[in-house]
Write a structure and sequence with these properties.
The structure holds two protein chains of two kinds. Chain A is an alpha/beta fold. Chain A has helices at about 10-15, 20-40, 50-65, 105-110, 155-165, 180-185, 220-230, 275-290, 300-320, 340-350, 355-365, 370-390, 420, 430-435, 465-475; strands at about 45, 75-80, 115-120, 170-175, 190, 210-215, 260-265, 295, 400, 440-445, 450-455. Chain A has a domain at about 5-255 and about 405-415 and about 430-485: Amidase signature (AS) enzymes. Chain B has a two-stranded antiparallel sheet with strand order 1-2. By secondary structure, chain B is mostly helical. Chain B has a domain at about 5-35. In chain B, strand 1 and strand 2 form a beta hairpin. Chain B has helices spanning about 5-10, 20-35, 65-70; strands spanning about 75-80, 80. Classes of the chains: A alpha/beta, B mainly alpha.
Amino acid sequence: MELYQLTAWELFEKMAAKECSAEEITQSVLRRIDQKEGDVQAYLTLNKEASLAQARAVDQKRASNEALSPLAGIPIGIKDNICTKGVKTTCASKILSEFVPPYNATVMDKLDATDCVYLGKLNMDEFAMGSSTENSFFQKTHNPHNIKYVPGGSSGGSAAAVSAGEAVLALGSDTGGSIRQPSAYCGTVGLKPTYGTVSRYGLVAFASSLDQIGPIGRSVKDVALLYSAICGKDEKDTTSIRREYPDFAKGIVPSVKGMTIGLSDEYFGEGVSDEVKTAVMKAVDALKEQGANVVSVSLPSTDQTLAAYYIIASAEASSNLARFDGVKYGYRTKEYTTLEEMYEKTRSEGFGDEVKRRIMLGTYVLSSGYYDAYYKKAKFTQKMIQDAFQTAFGCCDLILTPTAPDTAFQIGENIHDQVKMYMNDILTVTVNIAGLPALSVPCGFDKKGLPIGLQMIGPKFSEGVLFNAAACYEELLGGFSAFSALK
Amino acid sequence: MEMDLKRLAKLSRLRFTEEEEKKFQGQMEQIVKMVEKLPDLDASGPLIDPNSPMEMRKDVAEKKFNRDELLKNAPQVQAGCVVVPKVVEE
């Protein structure tokens, strides 16, 4: 067993027992990156020297018996839409290709306090818009299980790196499924936290009312560890929520005894492949045997939810991305005479096609004459969806669904059909629209050997319950690491 | 459904070649068709969630950056200022 194959918790125990050093762990992961990165292409920026120096500093602290966080010395990758002071943050866009933030996102300040090791910045769909990481301006990331296939998106670099052993943990962001869908495609564990529990300060905004930063790992405990490290009230984000956040990793009780699981027909409809349905139902049966009850719940149509999602997300994106005008930072076109020409050429040369489509969709649904029919109606649909979930959680503790309708598709397969690409998000967007937490865990492989994801959705602030249920399932399977591409 | 892509591009501060315009026209019409699947519901009443009130921080100035640091990312700088095309007529 190589060090890069272990989970964060296992590595923490090894370091505590002086069986290995932080430097050896980082070296092992860096060697793995050298070996796999040519195929996977998960990283946009790699900090080899800096990460080794960080690891050595952790070893020194341990040698002088300083109290250390379980994340101390753990090599972590960061999605490239999270601002890292002094380290390029591109959002995988040409328009930010040279942007070096003069400040840290709040989650980075919080991680600094744990002494974890930063490996580098991870590839994504440009501005987190996409479901395959094919919309990156720089490179396509490949699924480590089969490099002909996409890793999912938009946090495709994060999920691929963790699955391939090129990082022990990673941060992603999730606006409509961008942590959970790539986790399903790559066989990792990914959490989209309750809206407002993780600060968005320093996360380059896509759709501010839906965006959340969250962890990706190879075990439930690892994901809980990283979540505990980044959650909490932040003065710099007005939408962040003040409350008591427990130590989630310590609090895990791997059991579903007495829990009620809700199932909704809407999430097992005709678009969902038979292999995925079978694998998810097998997981439900396994949890039933462990003492869970299963009830059926009614949720609004996924078609309507997807429509509301794309209206709200694009409306916010078109406003948020208005700041990219070539004036204060980012790319600026070379030839222009008027200010307006500078704006238009800068944006047209700086943004990729998918970003342009979302900006135009958002502009359209907010424009006079269309606002009531689209944006306003979508906001009321959102309220209807929130109410429906509240009713559903009156009779169950969590809802189980497939994470995505199918397993990973081939690179290039959906790139010319936007609506087909958007259908990838049909089972995940509801969670963002309703502000709920959801966890994606692996639950099998398809005939092609690609992982299948199971989504667990809970009421607001129920992350602890999701971790308990997921940990119970993890124990039954003998761990989730076998779903990663660590060999 | 006919979409005025020229106007939409203008509002979005984007410009396209004729060929691109044709491509986006078709794509945008497909996407709008998809987002039209909203339910028929009563769109009146309040939308504010009283359970999650927003908490504003105190508006206190703090010194965090110096000018040079902030201008480092600007595409064109002169004498400590960002340079843009002339916008005021004489």
